[in-house]
Write a structure and sequence with these properties.
Blueprint lengths: L3 H5 L10 H10 L4 H6 L6 H17 L8 H7 L6 H11 L6 H17 L3 H17 L4 H14 L2 H14 L4
Helix pairs in contact: 2-4, 4-6, 6-8, 7-8, 8-10, 9-10
């Protein structure tokens, strides 16, 4: 049988390729997630994107699938530099059973990505995850509000729209 990596390769970084079949396979055999999470840092950017996509899609239906990977993901945050992987990491972090210290570390990373990554999609998902962290830990709000305001002012239309929705949900004046 072909290795998971082989099934996730080929095509472009914005296509899902055979990922839907891999998602079904991982759902039936959760032990395959070890290999999926290992591939987030693969040298092949298509493989890295699709592996993080698979993990994110599995987490949507089984949030607890992320829990055993939280230490690995938190440790590797500085190494996740590929924008397509950064699309998915915030969506994984929100499902993890984070301690307050881990939540602050995750918050710091996704906010930094939201402010510095050229991808509007990274900012969109990073801000959404940061907002959820603020909802879980109100000590983060004092840091979040001014940064949200800045991103609302300088961000692209999609980022500003996300800022306004988050501000409304959290009752923050922009």
């Amino acid at each position: 049988m072909k290795a998971l990596r082989d099934h996730l390769s080929g095509g472009t970084r914005t296509s899902v390729g055979q990922a839907p079949a891999i998602i079904k396979q991982v759902t039936r055999s959760p032990e395959l997630l070890d290999e999926i999470y290992d591939l987030f840092l693969d040298q092949d950017s298509v493989v890295a994107m699709r592996s993080s996509y698979v993990a994110m899609k599995v987490a949507e239906t089984d949030p607890e699938s992320t829990w055993r990977f939280k230490k690995r993901v938190l440790r590797e945050l500085p190494r996740y530099v590929q924008q397509e992987v950064r699309w998915h990491i915030p969506q994984l972090l929100i499902h993890m059973n984070l301690t307050p210290a881990e939540r602050r570390k995750a918050y710091a990373a996704v906010m930094e990505w939201s402010e510095t990554d050229k991808s509007k999609i990274v900012a969109y998902y990073g801000l959404e995850a940061a907002a959820q962290f603020v909802e879980a830990d109100d000590t983060l709000e004092a840091d979040f509000v001014p940064r949200l305001r800045v991103l609302n002012q300088r961000g692209a239309a999609s980022v500003a729209s996300r800022c306004r929705k988050i501000a409304k949900r959290l009752d923050i004046a922009l």
